[in-house]
Amino acid sequence: MVDDEPANRAVVSRMMKDLGYEVTMATNGEAALEAVRRGRPDVILLDVNMPLLDGFEVCRRLKSDAATRLIPVVMLTGQSTVEDRVRGIDAGADDFLTKPFILSELEARVRSLTRLKRYTDELDSAESVILSLALTIEARDPYTQGHCHRLAGYATALGAGLGLRDDQQVALRRGGFLHDVGKIGIRMRYC
To answer: CA 91, 97, 98 angle in degrees (round to 5)?
Structure first.
C-alpha cells in the first residue's frame, strides 16, 4: 500500500489485514520502489498524488523492470478524469479505482489480481522446469554443450532482426531451449 495520507493507509491496511493479507506500507514513490525491491508483493495499491515520485512514474518504473513488471498495480486516486485513467493505463496500471472507493470493490479487485499473480508465478515455475529439462538433455551429450543457449540466442536475434514484438521474441527464445526436449527419452550412446 503506497499513500502519503496516514488515514488512507490505516483504512486500507486494516481492511487488507482483516482479509488475511500481509501489508507493507510506503509513504511516497521512492519508498515504494525500495519496498518492492526488498520483498516482491503480490499486488501494489498505489496512490497517484504523492511527494517525490507520483504514482504514474512509480508504475512506469515498476512495469519497465523485468523483475517487477508482472506485479499487478491498482492505482488509487481522487482524480476521475478520463485523461487520468488513460495516463494510468499508459503507465502500465492493471486497474484503477477512484477515491472514495467501495471497500468490497477493492477487495474483489485485489482478490482477482492476487489470483492472476499466482497463475503468473506458476507459469514462471513451469518455464523454469522446461529450461531445466532442456539443460538436462544438453548435459547428457557433451558434444552439444551450449547448443540450447546458442540456438535460443540465434532465434531471439532473428526475431529482433525481423522486428518481432518482445513477446514473440520470448516465444522464440523458449523454442530454442525446447527444440530438443524429445531427446529426454532417448538413451545416449557414444562410440
So the answer is: 110
Question: Measured between alpha carbons, how far is 150 from 144 in angstroms, rounded to an integer?
Answer: 10
Its pTM stands at: 0.66
Helix (H, G, I), strand (E, B) or coil at 36: helix
Task: Provide the pLDDT for residue 125.
Answer: 67
- Tell me which residue of 42, 41, 63, 59 sits closest to 50, measured CA to CA: 59
Please give the sequence-ordered ranges of beta strands (E in DSSP) within the chain, or none if there are none.
44-47, 73-77, 95-98
User: pLDDT digits over 41-61, tens only?
Assistant: 999 999 988 888 899 999 999
35 φ, ψ (degrees, to nearest 5): -65, -40
Query: Residue 13's closest CA among 24, 4, 29?
Result: 24
